[in-house]
Write a structure and sequence with these properties.
Length: 156
């Protein structure tokens, strides 16, 4: 898993675990292992909730085999859909990405985001910068401002 996708995975899984925590921790009844009909998987087999999740004082985690999974605890949360988006959130910030698509991260020191082959930008205490491949780009910060347009020139 890429470093950018790990935070996204963590955030998604945590969000799911947080959403399900009241049911897991607050219920005194028994959990039903079979959902009510007519839940049917794509291959025609009945849907079954398996023993793929855990919850305890340190947090919760769960996964659907071959499907989405996540975890949450005191330090944050993560979630991912295999081959799809993933995210992570915690005290230091949050990040998320779609494989081959946009991704971004934000935290106390700033934020950054990019679309592969498209625009990208970063902002933080030291300033801001942005660019479009083959197009305009610019930066601004305590040292001044600069901007460029290909074929036209730069200022700053």
């Amino acid at each position: 898993m890429s470093r950018a996708a790990a935070p996204a995975l963590f955030a998604g899984v945590a969000a799911g675990a947080i959403a399900l925590a009241p049911a897991a921790f607050g219920s005194t009844g028994s959990f039903v292992t079979q959902p009510p009909p007519p839940c049917v998987n794509a291959d025609g087999t009945p849907c079954v909730v398996g023993p793929n999740g855990v919850a305890g004082p340190g947090g919760a985690a769960g996964a659907i085999p071959g499907g989405p999974g996540g975890a949450a605890g005191p330090e944050g949360a993560t979630g991912v859909i295999p081959g799809g988006p993933g995210g992570t959130a915690g005290p230091g910030g949050a990040a998320g990405a779609i494989p081959g698509g946009p991704g971004g991260a934000a935290g106390p020191e700033g934020a950054t985001g990019a679309i592969p082959g498209g625009p990208a930008g970063t902002a933080g205490p030291g300033g801001v910068t942005g660019t479009i491949p083959g197009g305009p780009s610019g930066s601004a910060g305590p040292g001044g401002v600069e901007g460029c347009i290909p074929g036209v020139g730069c200022i700053g």
